[in-house]
Amino acid sequence: LCGGSLFTAGVDLRKSVYGIELYTQDNPSNIVVDGKMNETEKNIVRAKQNWIVGYKEKDQVGIVVRVLFDEELQKKGAELEFTLLDDASAKQEPEDEPGVHFFGYDVDLLKFPKGKYNVIFYQYIAFNFKKGDEQQFLHVLDHPLRTRAGGL
Q1: How far is the C-alpha of 119 from the C-alpha of 8, rounded, in Å?
Q2: Core-most of 37, 55, 114, 148, by most CB within 10 Å?
Q3: C-alpha to C-alpha distance for 108 and 32, rounded to whole angstroms
Q4: Residues 36, 86 contacting (CB under 8 angstroms)
Q5: Phi first, then psi: what are they for 70, rounded to 5°?
Q6: How many whole angstroms from its chain centre is CA 58?
Q7: Are 61 and 126 in contact (CB under 8 A)?
Q8: Are 28 and 82 in contact (CB under 8 A)?
């Protein structure tokens, strides 16, 4: 690999979602997809954001993105970083609509030691979503439902 090698994964949206609010555990507000980056968006907390929520109150639609990042990679210095690009004038082939409205994660591949690792992305789409509902989706992994077979 050469210098500057990144692995990027996330969600690239169309301008029809303008007005969607994004937040993470350390970026609680003032990130709105609108085709331009404000000062808050340019200075977001990037490190250790294990989940991202996109929420459009008017439509009551939400997306929750959750990442499980291999602990061995973290111990060896690889970090998952929240990334955001909201630029109405950017061109990105092969899309037919100008603009990039992307949120997700970057990882510097030069920090990946040789080996096999797991980086797992979960994406939940929810209707009738309200701010705070992300906790229900985060609990799916944090507090899994446990059952056991047995007689009455």
Answers
A1: 12
A2: 55
A3: 26
A4: yes
A5: -50, 125
A6: 21
A7: yes
A8: no
In the numeric block, the tokens 């990442």 are attached to: 67
Give residue 1's pLDDT: 43
Place of tokens 């439902």: 145
Distance CA 30, CA 37 (A): 11
Are 65 and 80 in contact by the 8 Å Cβ rule? The answer is no
Structure tokens at 51: 């989940």
CB 64 within 8 A of CB 137: yes
Taking only the tens place, the pLDDT of each residue in 65-89 is 998 888 888 787 788 899 999 999 9
**Whole-number Å distance between alpha carbons of 50 and 24:** 8
Residue 94 pLDDT more than 80? Answer: no
Calpha distance 124→11 (Å, rounded):
12
Q: Cα Rg for the chain, rounded, in angstroms? A: 17
